[in-house]
Each structure stands twice: as structure tokens, then as C-alpha cells.
Amino acid sequence: MSESNQPSSVVPGGNAIQPRMVLWSITIVAVGLSLFQLYSAGIQPLGLFYQRSIHLALIMMLAFLMFPAFGPTRKRGVLGWGLDVVFLAGAVLTGGYLVFNLDEIFSRAGFWSDTDILVACIATVTVLEASRRAVGFGMTVIGFLAIVYAFAGPRGELPWLGEWMPGILEHRGYTFDRVAGQLYLGQEGIFGLPLGVAATYIFIFVLFGAFLECTGAGKFFIDMAYAATGRQRGGPAKAAVLASAGMGSISGSAIANVVTTGAFTIPLMKRLGYKAKQAGGIEAAASTGGQIMPPLMGAGAFLIAEYTNTPYLDIVKVSILPAIMYFATVYLFVHIIALKQGMQGLPKDELPQMRQVMKDGWHFLLPLAVLVWLLAMSMSPMRVGYYAVVTMVAVAVIRYALWFFFIAPRQGQPVTASATKSMLGAGFAKLIEGLELGARNAVAVSMACAVAGIIVGVVGLTGLGLKFSSMMMAFSGGNILLALLMVLLASLILGMGLPVTASYIVLIVLVGPALTQEFGIPLLVAHLVVFWYSQDSNVTPPIALAGFAGAAIAGSKPMETSFQAWKFAKGLYLIPLFMVFNPEIIMGGPVPVVIWNAVIAILALGAFAAALEGYLFTRMSWLPRIAITAAIIAVFYPNLLSEIAGVAVMIVAIGANWLASKRESEVTPVSG
């Protein structure tokens, strides 16, 4: 398999101008971090603070090495090197101080020494700077504003600022020592739950995804999708949906998913007849869906499991149906556009054969099978990730060894000492590549979780979460639809500066209490709703990040592509609403009720796609489209008679459209 046939992968920090010494340093630190994580996941688990502090120190060292202070296109210079040395020392101090003084810190039980406070200040500044480089300026600003808010109050460091606060946001204010101690030495702060999840479950699964990527799993998923759907109407677009579901389930980023699969799917969609903006929008919507697709869910499943105290396997189970509903909606949009524009599939000779695809890549399914099997046995997700990585490496080694010793000689490549040496060298290089890529990929999410910890710490210290709940009740007037609309708008605003994972953490801390306590939404449903809405910054203009990535590949205007992505991703907004009003699809219930809710949800989403496009079997007039819209509202309302009436209207409208298409085909027969 030639290198050119591999999907293009995005290496974080790979576009920066770096001297060779720095590149070697990045490799050493990254490989060391990955080996440390594997050791603590599968061989010798460490204590909570030891694990998190060592993880954060190595992650921040990587961030300062990978991302120069003044941007990737400029050389560091004397000032840049000076800043990097200072912050690298800060990273080592942040983790090292806790590792070597943990027992003494615990024995002080909240009575921190001057040294504790000094190190806490250095650690907080270092975390904010590492976040600025790895995640973006928005995340750092929000973290900084949270700290300033903690100081604002009559008994805080900034009493004058507290006077300007609206009454509902007022609090007593906190001193420098109290805030620093809370953020660095408290259990709600930098080393709190978000970083704990990143340092354990998330990293090991990101590493697993990196090994899949290095060994060619991306091409396998794409080829399998093309083999399955390529000959159908709009085949490449349907392949994009399926490939993005496959890649997204093991990828941690919608944007990386767009770039990886979109490099293949978008040009073929354009060739088939999709407009450039449609091709980019389809890929962006499908790749965003990858973040809600089990088992990894872009790290969300692990966070939800920790916050709700629900077993990880249960989160995966309840997320399968909503994910299928989302992808079914995007798939139907794609199919309707293909019908509407009279598209055909690709010729058979241009498509991979499923038998050959499975023959070449069946081994990629083995680690996934091991992963699912071990999860089903209720093993710890961290240990499962460890065995999945080990299985992936073992399978790749065995497959390459079999090829080298048994197949290559038949192709005229004899086994010699020099060939064996080259083979071992190439294998070792591939191992190092996987270990390094996994660590690089984890930097952004870990830094986002560290700063999210700062925000969570301030929220806990000041009681902001309860104040936010009161504001939600006041503004929504107790109306659950208005409250959910506020959550949606808040997630969109947060998404301008925060990655999805951090946006979810901040939102759930702020609005979670209101959704569960004031509106009576079940805890798990509330978390899933907030997590789904946190994805909207990928596809909602004006800051549709995945849409912009799709536009870059498609060669279309970013805003036009984003609006297309927004249209195709409507399930992202509707499915959480259905979860709230019909919680049985998440929380379970009588089997007939669950099946009924699943069926009417899929029917409603499909009818919505048809009404929005104005086409299903043939063109729809405005009257059935309005009727379908009203029927969808009825279906979402949690009343059996209302649901039955809505389903009946949709069936009548869809049936009438089918009969109209039959009459048209009889009047104008299609020539063979």
C-alpha cells in the first residue's frame, strides 16, 4: 500500500517551523508520555494526583515544544526561546511539586504554605499559556475571566469590580491565597475531574485511534464505505456518511475527521454532481456526527460516565440509537438530493470490491472486537484501552511478519539479513510514530480539560452554577423549550472560543443543576442533551469550524458551506429535544414503548428532511410540507394520541407523494 493512498492526517503542531533538536525533543517527550500512560493503564495504576500531575507536566512540555510562542510561521528567536525555557520549567514545577510533596500537602489540610501558593500561581499561569498555544486564545480568556470573577467581591482582591456585578452574579469574593489553593491544590480545580478523565480514559483511547490511523485503518473504513454504497445514487456522499461514522467513532475531532475522509469523499461528490458547498456541508455534518458515535464519542462518553456515575458501557449502549438516528437523517438528506438532481452512482470498475477490502483490512476489526468484548465483560475502560492498543500493535506486527516471511519471497523479495534489518527498522519507526501521534493528538483535549478545571473550580467556589440556574428559571419563565433554546445559544457562544469537550464541561456545570432540579429532566438525558448541543459550533454559522474545513477542501465559500452543514445536521438540534420529551429512548422502559418512540423519531426525522428539501419520491408542494412540519411537532409532544395523529399525517403526506411519483412515471415513462 503506497503512502499516497493513505488518507491525509493532521499532525497537531506539524505546521510549525522547528529546529531538528526540538523535533527530537518532541518525539522523546511524546513517546515517554505514551509509554507512561500505557504503564499506568495496564501494568501499575498510580494514585489519582500522581497520575494527573505527571500527565499534565508532560502534556504542557509537549505544548510548549510543539507550538512556538509567536505562532507556527515565525522562528522562535531569543525572546521566544527565553519564554519557552521559563514555561518548560513551569511545566516541570507544576507536576513535580505535587509528586514530591503530596504527603506534606495533604498533612497541611488546607493551611497552605507560602511556597504552595507561589507554585499554585506559577502553575495557573503556565496552564493558561499552554492552553493559549494548544487550544486557542478564547479558552485562555475564559479561564482568565473566571479567575477575575472569583476575586470580584467585597472580601476579595477586587472589591471595586464586585460593585459592578449584576445582583444575581454577586458573591463574597475570595483572596489570592484561597483562589490559588482552590485551583492548584483542591479537588475541584486544575487537577479535578475533567483532567482526571483526560489523563486516564481519553488518552489511552486517543492513542488507540492514533495506532489505527498510522496502520491504515482510515483507508480501510473509507474503502469499505465505498464498496457498500458507491454504486447507489449519490454513492460518494453516502460513503462519506458511513466513513465519517467509522472514523469519527475512533477520532477525537470533527475537523480532523473532515480533513481525513473529506480529502477522498468531497472531490468524488463534486464529480458526481453535488455542488461544492453541498459536498463540503455533507462531509462537515457527517464528521460532526462522528463525535456522538460510540464507542469514543470524541471523549464525551468518558466524561458523561464520570459526571453521572454511570458505567461507561451503559453510556455507549444508550448513545447507539440517537447516533443511528442522526446518521440516518444525514443519509436521507444525501439520498433526496441525489434523487432530486437525477444523480447516479459510480461505475463498478472505479470502486473497491468488498471482498478485497475485507481481505486486505479485516485485521483492523480485531482490536475493535477485543475492545467491545472487554467492555461487555465490564472491565475498566482504561484497562480496555490498554488491551486494545496492545492488540492493535500485535496484529500489525503479526500481519507484517507473515507478509515478509511467506508472501514477499513469492513476489521475488527474498528474506535476507539486510531485508530483515530494514523490516525491523521500519516496524520500530512505525511504533514510534504511533506513540508520538497519540501524545500529540491528546495535547489539545488535555489542556482544554485543565482550563475547564479552572472554570469548574471557580463555579464551585462562588456558587455560580446555582446562580445560573436561577437566571435560567427567570429568563425562561419555567418553559422547558425556552430553557433548551438558552442552552443551545449558550453552547454556540461558548463554541466560539472553546473546543467541544471544554464547552460541554462548562455548560453542564452551569446549566446541569437547572435542567435536572428545576425542569425534572433525568440526569443522564440532561448530560446527553448538553453534550449534543456542544457540537453545534462545528456546523452552525457564523463559526462552523467543521464547515470551514469542508469548504477549504471543496473550494467553496466558507459561509455557504456552513449553511449547508447546518441544514444537513438538523438532527443535532431535534434529537436532543426528542430525548427530553421522550426519555424512554435513553432511560429505557417497556419494550413496546421504546420501539414505538424509536420508530416515530426516525419517521419524523426522515419526514423533516423531505419537507425541508421539498422532495421525496417527487417534488412536494407547500401544503404537505406544512402538514409534515405540524405533524413533527405533534410527534415530539409526549402524548400518545398526539403522536398517533402526527404519525398518521406524515404517512398520508408521504403516501400521497409516492402516489404522485407513480402517476408521473406512468405519464412520462423512463426509457431503459
Automatic annotation (TrEMBL):
Gene Ontology molecular function terms on file: transmembrane transporter activity
Residue intervals passing through the bilayer: 21-41, 53-71, 78-99, 111-128, 135-152, 190-212, 239-266, 320-339, 360-379, 385-408, 442-466, 472-494, 506-533, 539-556, 568-587, 593-615
Keywords from the named record: Cell inner membrane, Cell membrane, Membrane, Transmembrane, Transmembrane helix, Transport
Chief localization: membrane
One of the record's GO cellular component terms: plasma membrane
InterPro entries on file: DctM, TRAP_DctM-Dct_fused
Ranges where the TRAP C4-dicarboxylate transport system permease DctM subunit domain occurs: 123-584
The keyword Amino-acid biosynthesis is annotated on this UniProt entry: no
Membrane topology: Multi-pass membrane protein
Position of the signal peptide: none
Localization annotation: Cell inner membrane
Pfam families named among the record's database cross-references: DctM
Function: Part of the tripartite ATP-independent periplasmic (TRAP) transport system.
PANTHER family: BLL3936 PROTEIN
Protein name, per record: TRAP transporter permease
Organism field: Vreelandella glaciei
